[in-house]
User: Fold this.
Amino acid sequence: MRRPRWMAAVVMPVATALVITSCGGDDSGDGDGAGGAGNNKNDTGTVSVFGTEPENPLVPGNTTETGGGKIVDAMFTGLVDYDPVTSEPRNAHAEDIAVSDDGKEMTFKLKDGWTFHDGTPVKAKNYVDAWNYTAYGPNGQQGASFFMQVAGFDQVNLPDPDGAEGPKPAPTPPAKEMSGLEVIDDLTFKVTFSAPHPIFRVKLGYPTYSPLPDSFFADPAKFEETPVGNGPWKFVSRVPGQEVLVERFDEYKGDDKGKVKNVKFSFPESADAAYAMVVDNKLDFLDTMPPSALAGNIWQTDLEGRSSSAEILSLQSMSFPLYDPKYKSVDFRQAISMAINREEITKTIFEGNRKPATGYASSKVPGWEPGACGELCEFNAEEAKKLFDKSGFTGTVEITSNADGGHKEWVDAACGQITNTLGVACKFVPVQSFGEIREKINAREMTQIYRSGWLADYPLVENFLNPIYRTGGSSNDNGYSNPAVDAKLAEADSAASEEEAYALYHEAETMIAQDMPAIPLWDNPSQFGWSTNLKNVRMTPDRELDLSYVEIA
Amino acid sequence: MGRYVLRRLLQLIPVFVGTTFLIYVMVWAVPGDPFAGMCGERPCNPAFVAMMTDKYNMDETVFVQYFLYLGNLLQGDFGETFSGLAVGDLIALRYPVSIQLAVIAVAIEAVIGIAAGILTGLRGRGFVDNLVLVSTLFLISIPTFVTGFLLQIVFGLELGWFPATVSSEATWGELIMPGFVLGSLSMAYVSRLTRTSIAENRRADFMRTALAKGQPKRRIVGVHLLRNSAIPVLTFLGTDLGNLMGGAIVTEGIFGIPGIGGLIYDSILNKEGVTVTGVVVLLVIVFLLVNLIIDLLYAVLDPRIRYD
Amino acid sequence: MTDPTIAAQADSGGSYVTALEHADGGGTGKKGKPRSLWSDAWGDLRRRPLFIIASVIILFLIVVAVFPEWFTSADPNHRDLSRSRQTPSSDALFGYDVQGQDIFARAVYGTRWSLLVGVGAAVFTVVIGAVIGLLAGYFGGAVDGFLSRVAEVFFGLPFVLGAIIILNAFRSSGVDSAFALVMMVVFALSLLSWPVAMRIMRSAAISAKQQDYVKAARALGASAWRIIFRHMLPNCLAPILVYATILLGSFIAVEATLSFLGIGLRDPAVSWGVMISDARNYIRVAPHLLLFPAGILTITVLAFVMLGDAVRDALDPKLR
Assistant:
């Protein structure tokens, strides 16, 4: 029921593009299509893509934010990648992935003949070394927790005894390598988990699991200056604060080889400027419309015939800092959820460009069942008021968010509904920077309800639940803990089949909704636009331009 | 003259130290953890935070941090941002663009402001005077971001007369509209200042003398009146040039200009004291040098002024 | 150095003063009774039509600011998305904003905060700048050197940096009432804007110091304070008053920019600036959201500048 709607949005422009390009006779997408005789513009042209300055050097294991992630994604290809349309995982560099019967071991066989951009072959060793490097605590890599389930992780990455803020540094771990990783031969390696984890396969498309060339370990500083990947795009140059240029890697063996010669990731000063640049044909692709373009759906007329909307793996929500006694009452939390009229806000404030949420994951996730939140996520003034009166909450409801990013409008609107429905004062408390909010959240000092968006790392319901709602999860920021939910999630993680896992995750979601630690608000489909220079434009579910498909018109 | 210039240059030193220190401390006082926002919607890996804290001396007191920074700066090292970019490179890339923008803005405000000022100053009260007053005031009473968006939409997107945004090459033509937006704030003040100055000087003795000598009107106005009225206007324009270079945060954001305003703003929010201080120090030096040049120009414009 | 704008002045009677003003000026002078500068100015002012119009507008705004409930019965903070962005009608004179709030009611209630920000910040800026500028200009030497360096340091501070620090420092101290929010903004604006006022005052003071009346006062043995505040201040006010009135208007507008950056006023202190800032994404779809607050802002600024202009002309003895 969800796919057709999504297909309608994206496949339509794609289909028209196909009709146009079929004259050129070069749209087969067979991987060797690049450089076809019919289209010389592709061979020389550059596609400029909206981006933001990477927060860290372009090392895959140290990149978890979208600005750098977009570029790292283009430069590296791991064992698995995701279908740009359905977001189903498929083998990329892995020839074969074999899971043992007990789900505790996974053996990877690599395709032969793949090389890094510097010409050295990609071997099993490159994966194992890269993963060990990322997981090793003292290296301070942001992606370390992605290897949590691998046996021996607890020997290479020790928790800081007095917390990150404490004066003592984390102790040096006893081992430098995880015991669960084993190179069998040049093209085979085996991973052993501390508990069965068959779903690991689906996560592997995330760039943190990329291999690193030998040159990285020899001289990391040089690598940071000129990163060497193994993906379809090769690093060319970087202008600090302005752009990163990559070119097609002609020796690339994967299926997602690019058709155009160069891709430039540009970092305009603001989303508004980026939008105007796309209208002006100075920027070729913008993945999110700024609020000023969504107002009155101006983007549809400004960019007629060169814009579209696609669902992505993203959900907007509001979280309660549960460690603050003010928010202890479940009745209060449910009352707030039911006092918000998601229909009305998505229609007026977002002009229909958002979709009311019915559960704790985005509807774009394969295998996700909607409706876990049920009536609790539907506007119901009477019930909300009843619950609110029962909760005995006094004072002002305060909702906070970073001020940039167009959040003020919907928070104000939600506040208006809360006031009108519950008769309680409600206000928006803006904060300048995302970092400032994060700091308070990390330190567990938040005293206001806060906005908590989530863009999934990989297309799996698990990624919307485990990190956020499981006790001690890597993004469990509000202190939510329910042993029954933990048990259900653990059961789902080690379920024998993917179908069974999906059913169990849905049950877990239903249980979470009853506790309402966070209020799901709406799916964030992304409205994107492109310049008249492009054709064959489509967006992947992780909000990136499909670089293997795009061509220059 | 030479001693005067030397003294002025020496005065730069306390201002340099005072400004760098004040800015460094202020950025340090910006709330928020600089590394907390670097990991998307999740808490950062503690090991990552520990490594970064150590790398950027964030565990030292602000004074130690400042002196470490100042030491590097005096050796010509501007330091690097938290994302590992050399601040010197960023400045070298963005500074020329901001200077270009500020020059255009000051040129526009000078041409329009002075012209309007002369016109109203010579004519005295009346319809033209009020028209100029109202239209320049209209510009200052509307916030920059509104003027910016309006012009961008009307002249850039709808009519297509000017480019709506600025590319990374930042050509002069692309900067005209942003320059106007930036300069519009001060235009009103320049025109008022010119008007007042001219109105006052019109009744000065030297004007009467020139008139009595039977000099042609063109010469009286062009040489005697304008030259003597120029000083306050010039002072203001000089001040404004320095001001506009760093104060273009909003304008740069709207038109996508890769200048230093956006760099300053982002670095403030990220608590990158190194970047903010490096950029602003250069601004202050430029500002003070421009003022020195203008003070020296006084002597050229008005022979009564002597520096010794 | 001297500033010739003020140094080279002649007596009155220029064609710059209109016939009406000229006649008035002559009329007040005939009584022969010794009058102070200020009462003289007042006599001059109350015959100027521009001054009267400006005063009426400002008085009206003050009444609106003090008693907003006299002018509208609508609740400025009631939100109703079903009437989002409706255009002006008989229900709502100025229409409704994105949140379905009555724009007219918001503009009426916003008068108080906007005026407070503009007037407050302009007064503080001029007072700080004028005092420091006068002292620097009169004493010169080391005093001037020190004060000028301090001003240069402050001038070098990026405005946004200063504003973020100051406004955040206050916020984390838990200040939350509307009046306190406004005062925070006033404080931040004036602390960061005084150097320009100081420079203007300083150059005026330097040139005034060399004028005969100051020399005469000094020869008569007047104290430094008396010379500064009794003789120099009134004569140096003209340039800074022009600056102040424009400053006042631009402060009301700058406050909108602060709101735009997320550090300005916010609920419950809803000003015109906040309204303008809120309207910015809807310029193309619902221009009335911007038009009404911006229009009121312009009229207000205009009124203050006209007032300042008239006062300046009246105060400047050379123009009379």
Remarks:
- Chain A has 19 helices and 22 strands.
